[in-house]
């Protein structure tokens, strides 16, 4: 049985596109960056922690397979998580305005006997955003619960001048890398024999 260790409705929607049956595990996993961690290493560790926590939850099922994911917006090695309030959301968007930033989506797929990982790295460049646009976007409520304070699948798609990488990865679940990982366990649309998981960079 495949499990998705995520509270995100976007990830559920994206994983459904791969045509697989799965169940959802809603977990509370600490997301605290360690002092000596690079931003990308942090994202990968959180994805791994989620997968392993999910596997512990279903440890009584010998065939359980758990997919953990984490997506973060990164600028100058600063990790932009989910904004706590309107002021923080606006501050994030002002920093992202007019400059390229990185979105890292990490995956960990674990069973009782195997552990595989992959990462998608995308570069996103916003247009310069006037304060009035930022304020209106924050007032829409869309930034909340989103890494970096924006949803590329929503109103913020209009801000994007350029995207190099994975659109689904920026949403929260890179489908190509997910399909590659699942294929190593004999599942999904790539299980017929396409190349195994790889890192994607812009």
CATH class: Alpha Beta
DSSP helical segment count: 6
H and E string: EHEHEEHEEHEHH
Proportion of beta-strand residues: 15-25%
Shape: elongated
CATH topology-level fold name: Maf protein
User: Radius of gyration in whole Å, from Cα?
Assistant: 17 Å
Low-pLDDT windows of residues: 196-202
Q: Give the overall pLDDT as a whole number.
A: 93
Structural class: alpha/beta
The CATH architecture can be named as: Alpha-Beta Complex
Overall number of structural domains: 1
Distance between the termini: 33 Å
Largest sheet: 7 strands, mixed
Please bin the fraction of helical residues.
25-40%
Quantity of strands, as a count: 7
Spell out the blueprint of helices and strands.
Elements: E1 2-5, H1 9-16, E2 23-25, H2 39-57, E3 65-75, E4 78-80, H3 86-96, E5 100-110, E6 115-126, H4 131-139, E7 160-164, H5 167-171, H6 175-184
Parallel strand pairs: 1-2, 1-3
Antiparallel strand pairs: 3-4, 3-5, 5-6, 6-7
Helix pairs in contact: 3-4
Q: In a nutshell, what does this entry contain?
A:
With 202 residues, this protein is of the alpha/beta class.
Keywords for this entry:
alpha/beta, 202 residues, single chain, Maf protein, seven-stranded mixed β-sheet, 31% helix, 24% strand
